[in-house]
Design goal:
about 260 residues, mainly beta, 15-stranded mixed beta sheet, 15 strands
Length: about 260
């Protein structure tokens, strides 16, 4: 059996986790693809086993007395997985609504016997992040234009266009480390789900580091090919099989179909 399959699933949905580094000099206007009130629910499967569910939500928030968006991810293991590896994670991320740059992030990780609490405060003007892990505080350097493990997904969703063959580079801070990642636009594809059929943009997220996905780090993501850019499916190969996150409910406006 693949070790800790639910951990892989939770990290997969936590928005390409490890993430993406943008050359911030190349910023561009973003689409209003993300709306306050959006709530997307996913089922995560491994070897045709329901590993758990995860929810992505967008709410209004404030950080340092400034207007911001609050991104929330919760992930829980299914009863079958919980018997040998319980998971109950919650991530809250406050981001700039215009750029999706991270301002503050809280991550309560409950996986098996592991219990960690992370608190990150980003200081983009100083090129640093104040990271608190289990009560121990450090100030660490970050490159310009740094996202966290959730905000990078929303940034990618808001890019103005996807041209097959092009690549976007982003920078993400996760677990007190800075990562670089590439998002490659592979093309358009029609996919099926519980919501029917939809034309989607297929992205390949190239993760040049080991550890999170057991040496099989690349992730494919399918976004609706419209202004909403809803993540319909996310898939990552692991040592045995693949972890798949499929949208099952909660499209904006209460619709049940893309």
């Amino acid at each position: 059996m693949c070790p800790r399959p639910w951990l892989l699933a939770a990290l997969l949905l936590a928005s390409f986790l490890g993430s993406t580094v943008l050359t911030w000099a190349e910023t561009r206007p973003l689409l209003p693809a993300v709306q306050v009130g959006e709530r997307l629910t996913y089922e995560l499967t491994w070897l045709n086993i329901l590993a758990g569910t995860a929810v992505l939500e967008v709410a209004e928030g404030n950080s340092n007395a400034q207007a911001s968006l609050k991104l929330v991810m919760t992930a829980q293991s299914s009863p079958k997985i919980t018997r040998f590896y319980p998971v109950d994670n919650r991530v809250e991320s406050w981001v700039n609504p215009d750029t999706f740059l991270s301002e503050h992030m809280i991550f309560h990780r409950r996986e098996g016997k592991r219990k960690n609490d992370f608190d990150y405060t980003f200081h983009h003007d100083q090129g640093s992040v104040t990271a608190v892990k289990d009560g121990v505080e450090e100030t660490l350097p970050i490159p310009p234009g740094t996202f966290d493990a959730i905000s990078c997904l929303y940034y990618v969703r808001s890019l103005p266009q996807f041209v097959p063959g092009t690549t976007e580079s982003l920078s993400v801070h996760h677990d007190k480390k800075n990562y670089k990642l590439e998002v490659r636009v592979e093309g358009l594809e029609t996919i099926k789900g519980t919501w029917g059929k939809a034309e989607a943009v297929r992205l390949l997220v190239i993760m040049p580091f080991q550890g999170i996905f057991l040496n099989q780090g690349n992730i494919r993501v399918w976004l609706t090919n419209d202004g909403r850019r809803i993540p319909l499916r996310m898939k990552a190969r692991v040592i045995i099989g693949s972890i798949v996150a499929d949208l099952v409910s909660g499209l904006p406006g209460g619709d049940s179909h893309p």
